[in-house]
Amino acid sequence: MNFFKLFLILLFFIFSSNSFADNHGQNEIAQEISEDEEVPLNDPFAGNEGTGGALNSQMPSEEEEDEMSLYNFKLVGLISGKDNSYISLANSGGEVMTITLGQFLGKIKLIDLRLNEAIFEKEDKKFVIIDFNNVIREADEY
Fold first, then answer.
1. What's the CA gap between 96 and 119, in Å, rounded?
2. pTM of the predicted protein model
């Protein structure tokens, strides 16, 4: 019985010393990399934040002040069922808003869904269509 206890304790020390040596080696490599390489100018994990200005440059002037404008959102989800249909829109802060058919987003009303786009109707009976590539286009009919 004592033999097994000693054997297990010995194994524990062997494995713990190996993991310490591995971590120590990784820290040295990380230091070498951080000293040698420069940091990129843009954040690769920022997503499409850098392109947000380019997309907003296409925004009509009357939409700029309205925080509930469709131009301030991205289409992130679409669920269509027999009884109900929903879309999910995310703003630049990452907050998600879910809208069902017939609901208003500011001054526009969600009236239809397709496989990869949502169609809204404006007050002047024109249509605004947004897709998953965040392309927003206005049309007289859909």
1. 18
2. 0.58
CATH of the domain at 89: 2.30.30
CA distance 124 to 116: 24
**Predicted local confidence at residue 30, as pLDDT:** 61
**pLDDT confidence of residue 12:** 76
Could you give the C-alpha distances from 100 to 16, 23, 69, 88, 97, in angstroms and in order? Answer: 56, 51, 17, 9, 10
How far, in Å, CA of 72 to CA of 92, rounded? 7
Phi-psi region of 64 (alpha: psi -120 to 50; beta: other; left: phi over 0): alpha
Nearest to 111 by CA among 137, 75, 85: 85
CA 124 vs. chain centroid, Å, equals: 32
Position 124 in a domain: yes
Question: What is the per-residue pLDDT for 14?
Answer: 78
> Do residues 95 and 88 touch, judged by C-beta distance below 8 A?
no
When pLDDT is averaged across residues 40-56 and rounded to a whole number, the result is: 54
Number of domains within the chain? 1
